[in-house]
């Protein structure tokens, strides 16, 4: 009832105030912002590890109490009244200790709440600082937290500045690592982002341009990969051709022929077409010398035959 009254009061105030001046209202989703901040994720993981360890301890104690109760139920007929009462007191003591431990770890004022506040408070302070800066720069009159106890019956997406808060926090962390030149580039980029926040249509056009740019870059990468593949295939073909010519020259020199077996591997066999092919340098030298002498003898015989022919013609 109090929440509804407060919302109604705000609505009436805004209506009256809007008659004399324009009211600029925005809202955030604190849970969404915290999930986007890396420091929060790290702090949450640390806390979740501790909570898991505490839950394991609680589960162990519960199992111990259950075991005590089962043993008592099994042995009750064999025990005296005093022993039964003693074991029941032990079980009650264990249950009370378990309850106290649960309250200590997960109660309203337990370790989980205290450590969560300790871990998250610095991050929340960053968020509040960013919200104040955005409110001052863009002249917001009111900024609400969508995830708080205040019930917002309707909120247009264009009034959500959660992403702006996340960017503001990230910008602050990045600036500490940038040089002056890089900071100028970052300032220009931030100015464009801020302008897009004020003009959603501009942001949509920028998104279309970015998508087209990404598509062009992808197409260029695909073409580049295709060209590189074509060049690589040509290089491999040229290398295979050179190797084939080299193998053929080597085979001709050594008197062997290059053939491929059924597996595609090269094999060398003696040249069967010429059984007199020399296999050693001495034999090749001897054959060359014989051929040279044969050519000289043929030339001498031809010359002698020509002289005899001329003599016979002169006699006639």
UniProtKB/TrEMBL annotation:
Signal sequence annotation: 1-18
SMART domains, sorted: OmpH (SM00935)
Keyword Plastid: no
Segments forming a coiled coil: 51-104
Alphabetized UniProt keyword annotations: Coiled coil, Signal
Feature: compositional bias, Basic and acidic residues: 234-272, 281-293
Superkingdom of the organism of origin: Bacteria
Annotated region described as Disordered, given as residue ranges: 234-293
Entry similarity comment: Belongs to the Skp family.
PANTHER family: CHAPERONE PROTEIN SKP (PTHR35089:SF1)
Protein's name according to its UniProt entry: OmpH family outer membrane protein
Source organism of this protein record: Flavobacterium jumunjinense
């Amino acid at each position: 009832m109090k929440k509804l009254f407060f919302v109604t009061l705000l609505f009436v105030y805004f209506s009256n105030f809007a008659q004399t001046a324009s009211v600029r209202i925005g809202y955030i989703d604190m849970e969404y912002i915290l999930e986007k901040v890396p420091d929060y994720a790290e702090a949450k993981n640390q806390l979740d590890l501790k909570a898991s360890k505490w839950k394991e301890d609680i589960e162990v104690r519960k199992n111990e109490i259950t075991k005590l109760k089962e043993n008592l139920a099994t042995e009750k007929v064999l025990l005296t009244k005093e022993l039964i009462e003693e074991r029941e007191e032990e079980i009650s003591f264990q249950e009370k200790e378990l309850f106290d431990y649960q309250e200590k770890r997960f109660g309203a004022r337990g370790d989980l709440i205290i450590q969560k506040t300790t871990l998250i408070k610095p991050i929340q302070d960053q968020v509040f600082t960013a919200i104040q800066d955005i409110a001052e720069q863009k002249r917001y009159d009111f900024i609400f937290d969508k995830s708080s106890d205040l019930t917002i019956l309707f909120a247009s997406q264009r009034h959500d500045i959660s992403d702006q808060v996340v960017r503001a926090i990230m910008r602050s962390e990045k600036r500490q690592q940038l040089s002056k030149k890089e900071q100028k580039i970052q300032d220009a980029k931030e100015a464009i982002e801020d302008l897009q926040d004020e003009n959603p249509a501009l942001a949509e056009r920028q998104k279309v341009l970015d998508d087209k740019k990404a598509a062009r870059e992808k197409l260029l990468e695909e073409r580049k990969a295709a060209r590189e593949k074509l060049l690589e295939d040509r290089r491999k073909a040229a290398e295979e051709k050179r190797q084939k010519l080299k193998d053929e020259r080597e085979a001709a020199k050594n008197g062997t022929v290059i053939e491929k077996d059924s597996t595609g591997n090269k094999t060398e066999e003696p040249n069967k077409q010429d059984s007199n092919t020399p296999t050693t340098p001495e034999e090749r030298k001897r054959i060359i010398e014989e051929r040279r002498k044969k050519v000289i003898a043929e030339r001498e015989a031809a010359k002698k035959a020509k002289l005899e022919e001329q003599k016979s013609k002169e006699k006639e």
